[in-house]
Amino acid sequence: MLDQLLRIIGLDDGFIENLSDVTFAVQSPVILAVGLIALVPVAIWIYIRQRANLPSAPLPLRITLTATRVFVLALLIVMLAGPYARLQLKNERKPIVAMLFDASQSMDLESGPFPESDARKLATAAGYRANDGPIDSELRREFDRKTRRKLAETVVTAQQSALLEPLRKSYELQAFRFGREPSPLALDWAKPEFAEWNGAGDRGSYLGTAIGHVLNEAAGRPIAGILLFSDGENTGGRSPLEAARAAGLNKTPIFTIPTGTTNRLKDIAIVDVSTSGQLTIGDTGKVGVTLESQGYDKKLVKVLLKDGDGKVLDTKELNLLGREQQQIELMFKPTEAGTRYLTVEVPPLVDEDLKSNNADVTMVRVTDEKLRILYIEGLPRWDYRFLKNAMIRDTGLAGRVNPGPDLLLEAEWRRLPEANRNNLPILPKNLDEISQYHTIVLGDASANVLTPELCGLIDQAVREKGVGLIVQGGPLAMPHQANAVLQGLLPVQLASGTRGLFANAARQFRIELSPDGAIHETMRLHDDIGRNQNTWNGMLPYQWAVAAVRLQPGATALAVTPQVENNYGKMPLIAFHTVGQGRVMLVGTDSTWLWRKNVADRFFYKFWGQSLRFVARRDPKLASVSRIEVNPLKAQPNEEARIEVMAVRADGTVLTDANVNVQIFGPNLQTSVVLAADANVKGRYTGTFTPPREGDYRLTYLPVGSVEKPVESRMKVMPAPEEYRYPNVNRLALSQIAGESGGKLVELPDLATIPGFLKGEIRTTQLKREKTIWDNWLFLSVLVVVYSLDVGLRRLAGLS
């Protein structure tokens, strides 16, 4: 009832919820005081006048009429004084201290064995009594076998009086566990208890993402410090050093606490496996393997390459060197087309501390047909030189005219007699000739060689025959000087009147994978999500990019330039879409050759080789039948996969329904996913699926009207070994993170020293609000009712 009355006089929830802090006052106290004092003689005068004018009226009536008029006058005096409500709140906000607990797979490794001195310090910090002399063997084993995560939680809990109590008095404590994404911890800081955390499916270690989350969640509030409990291994997400620098700019020091022994594990680890990604039947496939070992110097081991069914394809022996990484190359010859899963393995040794990182799985695609490629370039720029040589070495590529890819360099073409330029056999003259190619690559070539006739043929070949097209931009001509037909094929809308965007020295362009690009086959340099992300994040900056305003409707961005944004978001750098029967991709920089730094063609041509095959023309026979594709073919549990269906009825007509259903069969799973129609391409349907657990998955689609077997695609889901590639505690990385932020590395037994390093004061803010309470319908209603009562009583009594 009271709340309703307060709302009627104009007070909102802010006043009502803090009613104890609300006071009432008037804007003109003098008017109120003088008015009320003057009201006393006025009231007496009114009564005397009523008695003189109404001598025959009963006494109660005269008193009532006097009271109504006095009340009206009193109400008017109050309104003239301007009554209002005042709310004053004091809010004390403590600076934040955030604790980040790494809960990734590597944190489930045993934290020991510890040296004697470290074990004693840890036992004391964890609340155990360590007597003089050698530490108790049972206690030693207990500490050595604790997981890194459990060790950190045990010590923090034991440091209640030395760490948590001092922090609670001056700071607001927050806690998060994190793998790939942070998850808040609800702890009673007076008696903290860490519940078990089910981080299944989120078992990467994204240190930078966790630090950035704390900074973002603070929303401008001061953060006195971040305590990071981790083994220092980062497997993806935002760069930890970049996040640490952002924390430093925010005056937020990070105190990194290594959780684990200083001793290095006795271990053999496969830290990297690389392949070209694509092979043709009969080619010699090469699998590059990088190993790292500790404690097995000069030990002779075997490195095995196995097929998916366990058959050994190649074996080599290697003498281990504990001081450095070692590379070895294994080979095999594929005899069947399809997706091949290959396992590289070093048989575990009996005394290894960690045996789960002795094997890794990679994937290659084997085709039974050579792709015909036409590559037209302007000048012999660096990208052309390296891409040309890589394509020539790729035995899965050919040309229409030449045994290898057909290459046309405009700089050489210009040196030909003008009469011979357009008669080159390599230049297609009609649709039949150009549609023999699977993929056409256009570099920074001008309209002199890309004539309107040739552009028209390319457009027709893409739309009608499904020929793939890759356009790599350049500052001289492509794509800003291309004719309208060619620009109409691009997956982006271009800014007019510009040759592209040039970076300045202070803000160079850097590539950033989009969410779609993170799972797309063309951008997969590594099978592991986090490792792939880290590799792209580490690419050298580029100085020029195509001036793309936005994506075309239905197009997909695989990578963006985050330094350039507009109302449509970050500027697309690498994008593709489907045009008619074909796919068109834009590579919006001329500096992909920089991806060769220190690794030659490994990343550079893996991207280009996968792109050439992704957009390539399909078998014409498949145009009249349905097909289904899933991407990626190899994924991790809870990693999103994209599904694409080209739906054709049994009679050969393209399906135009609003959606289609795809059946999914996996380990202990049978479900369906609804795919939505692509508004720009008839018969194309897309959607996503997230596999919940490891195993083999089969995705099927039954064409409308078909009585035969459904079309299908398969994917393999397996946990990535990325967390175990480098199992030792990375104190150097933790020290760098702390240094970039202005913090320091603190050993686990020394947690009690951290409060002395923190700086931050409690901020008191005052909220003051005022609200007038007389200018509302309630006051007016009371005034009208009382005045009406006066008039009504006079009329009923027969008085004038």
From TrEMBL:
Coiled coil: none
Keywords: Membrane, Transmembrane, Transmembrane helix
Keyword Nucleotide-binding: no
Source domain of life: Bacteria
Gene3D superfamilies attached to this UniProt entry: 3.40.50.880, von Willebrand factor, type A domain
SUPFAM superfamilies registered for this protein in UniProt: Class I glutamine amidotransferase-like (SSF52317), vWA-like (SSF53300)
Keyword DNA damage among record annotations: no
Transmembrane parts of this sequence: 30-48, 60-85
Protein name as catalogued: Uncharacterized membrane protein
